[in-house]
Amino acid sequence: MLKIGNIILDVPFFQASLSGYSDYAMRAIARDCGAPLTFAGVMLAKSVVHPRVFNNPSFRAGDDEHPIGAQLLGEDPEIMAKAARVVWKMGYDLIDLNFACPMPKVINRKRGGFLLNEPDKVIEIYNAVREAVDCPVTMKLRTSFDNQVYDNFWQICSGVSEASTGKVDALIVHPRTVCQRFTGSADWEFLSEVKKRFPRTIIIGSGDLFSAYTIKNNIKNTGVDGAVIARGAIGNPWIFSQLRAGDEYLAPTLEQQGQVISKHFNLFCTLYGPQNAVRYFRKFAIAYCKLHPKRKKAQKALVSTKTAEEFLTVVKQWYGL
Fold this sequence. Notes:
Blueprint: E1 2-4, E2 7-9, E3 13-15, H1 24-32, E4 38-39, E5 43-44, H2 45-48, E6 68-73, H3 77-89, E7 94-99, H4 104-107, H5 119-132, E8 137-142, H6 151-161, E9 170-174, H7 188-197, E10 203-205, H8 212-222, E11 226-229, H9 238-245, H10 254-272, H11 274-280, H12 282-288, H13 295-303, H14 308-319
Parallel strand pairs: 3-11, 4-6, 5-6, 6-7, 7-8, 8-9, 9-10, 10-11
Antiparallel strand pairs: 1-2
Helix pairs in contact: 1-10, 3-5, 5-6, 8-9, 10-11, 10-14, 13-14
C-alpha cells in the first residue's frame, strides 16, 4: 500500500509522467496491466493557464482514469500556483512539481532541474502551489545540479517537509545529478539516507527501474515507501502485472503482446487519426518489439508500414493473431 495525501494505492508503485509518451492511450494500457495511478505528460505551467492546452490528448484526464496526476514544469511561483489550480479544477487528483528534468531546453530556461541551484525559489513555488489547491502535492527532485554536494537538496527537503502551509505529500527522488541526465547508474543507496533523515515523509524512488525484480529489491533494500516507473514502462506495460503477481507471474505470450499492441494502436487512431497514428506510434512499436524473439525483423516490419490497416495486419502476422 502507498498513501499520498488522501490517495491510497493498493500497491507501492505507479507510472510516471513521460513527456511525449504518457497520453491517454499509454495510461489506459498501463491501468489495464495494473498501474494504480498514472500521470499525464509533463505540462508547462505558463501553457496550462490557457485552457486550450487540454486539447492535447496527453493532457486530458478521462472520466475513467482516476486517480490521475498532473506534473507541472515552471519557474514562476505565481504562474505555477495558477496552473496547479487549473489542473486541479480540470479533475486531476494529484499535482507533482518537476524540479528534476535534465533536458537542455528546460535547463536553459531555468526550469526543472536548474532550480536545484535555487532552493529558496523551489520552496517558494511549493508553498504557492500548496496554498492554491486542495489535493495532494508532490515534488520530483534530483540529488544536485552538477556535483556531489547535496546542501541544496537537503535544504529543499527540509523546507517542504516542515512547511508551515502543510508538508509535501511525497518526495519523488531520482538519485542522479541533473548534469548526469541518464548516464551512469542511479544511486539508490542515496535514497536510504533520504528516508533516514525524513522518516515521516513519503519517499518514492525513481531511476533505472526496468524490471520487477529491481523495483522490489530497491524498495526493500532502501526502505523507501514506493517507486515510480518511467522508461521501464514504455513498451512493457506488463511490468505492472508482474509486480502485482510476484512469483505467480506468467509472461505474456506473443499473441497477448499483439493484442495489447493492437489495442494501444487503436487508441492512438482514436486520439490522433489513423494516418498520424502510424507515424506517432513508431516509438512505441520499437519499444514493444524488445520483447519479441525476432526483435529486429519484427521492428523493421512494423515501422515500415504506411497505413493503419497495414500496421494492424503486420501485427497479426508477427504476433500470431
